[in-house]
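for the writeup, i need someone to sanity check this before i put it in the appendix. the sequnce is what the collaborator sent (i think, or maybe the updated version? ugh). structure was predicted straight from it, no edits. if anything looks off just tell me and ill rerun, i have time this weekend
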Amino acid sequence: MKTFELSEKCLKAKTKQELKNVIQILQDRVNVFVSVGTSLSTEKNQDILLENIVTYAKKITGADAATLYMMTEDEHKLRFSIVHTDSMNIRMGGTSGNEINWYPVKLYNDDGSPYLEMVAAYVALKQETLNFDDVYYVDGFNFTGTRQFDQKTGYRTQSMLTLPMKNHENEVIGVLQLINAKDENKQTIPFSPEAQALTEALASQAAVAITQNRLIHELEELLNSIIHVIASAIDEKSKYTSGHIERVAELAVELAQEVSNSNEGVYANVVYGKNQIDEIRFAGLLHDIGKITTPEYVVDKSTKLETIYDRINTVSLRFEILKKEREIEMLKALAGLSGKKAFNTEHNAMIDQLSLDVQQITDDFNFIQRMNTGGEFLSQDLKERVNKIAETTVTIEGNTETVLTENEVYNLHVSRGTLTEEERQIINNHAVVTDKMLSKLPFPKKLKRVPEYAANHHERMDGSGYPKGLNADNLALPARIMALADIFEALTARDRPYKKGKTLSEAMRIMDFMVKDYHIDPELYAFFKKTKLYIRYAKKYMNPEQIDME
């Protein structure tokens, strides 16, 4: 019924009931379009969105059946997306669970010319609406498939309304086809001009909604891909920490999900939705982004003397020269003994002394080589021995120098690990850089706390962490989760250059001490142990010999 016809009926209504009926029709139509606008603008699930388009189109026009075709990415075909036929109880595609395996409708012939025999293809290519009262009496189109379907099922395809769905750039993204409009008595009638106009308006609105939905999805996929690429690039920068970021992110997400699923205890009221979990996942993947600016020789420093190369090789050369120097000194001394009566006695004494000197030089170098690994705590006695060895001089190309330079001694004095205090500050600065870099990115509202969670993974509950020295009052639970995940991964990692991965019992014992020192969240750590999440992680990422507890 056309709008102007409804207006005339309002004027000609003889009874209140007739007027109410007309007003009700108008009200229903307004309600439908309000529902359409709300549904299409808010629905994020693509399948549900497409089903809603078909449902509303059928409701507006009274159609018995509808097919929604979507354009393929190469824009050469139309694929079946939704198929509904009410009278035959057919529901295919979308969320129905019934997959559509029909061949797509081609838009072009093998020679590249437009394929205009099929109604849907014609509508897509010409961007025109086609409205047929009875397809059995239409020339110029191929309805063979329609007739075969009718013969096989007993259905009678009659009226058909087919229209293009064009987005804001006037590009066809799909085709909507409606079949067999019904009147109040369920009799098939043609699609009226008003039904066509209303459906065209719906199709236009639907196309914009689909395009917007796709754009949002594509932007989310792009953001997700970029973050994963950045994380991979950071991991690939160091052959020793490859996989660290992915493992931290995975562990943090799993711990957050365990917390969210807990229905008792301190976390009973903590619930993380998809957006919160995504925040934690992205924070985990970006928590070390600041290491992009960290020099590789610091990130990969596997020994104390390593810079661009391991200077232990240069030190080794000096010690070898020192040995040769002692041999030359002995040979010169032996030459001076020639012809003396005590030659044999002094000769043997010199040989014995040379052997002792060479052995001492070898022992000293072996000691320096051991100190270079950073594998043991350097006590004051060990530092003193390094200093004493450093006083030994050797002549190289006429110049007298010590077997250890001042900088080499400084590096060898590192008490734990391989990094000097300056190098450790460079490493620690990655958290500052992470904060600076991520704070400048325009994260969407639902991910706005990614920079905070990522940058605070080295903060401690007692305020002794870095870069900001935040304490428990200023650390959100996701940031505490990130810190725990980062520590546990670092302790158990089997690919670090300066240490072997801790066994599970060693790692947990160290974290027990960190809880006592109030460096990590005691309640979160207790929950971590209670859920046995560390066991699941260990079985996936640790060597079997590291797993020494359940």
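Residues 193-237 form the longest helix (45 residues). Residues 1-7 have pLDDT under 50 and may be disordered.
thx in advance!!
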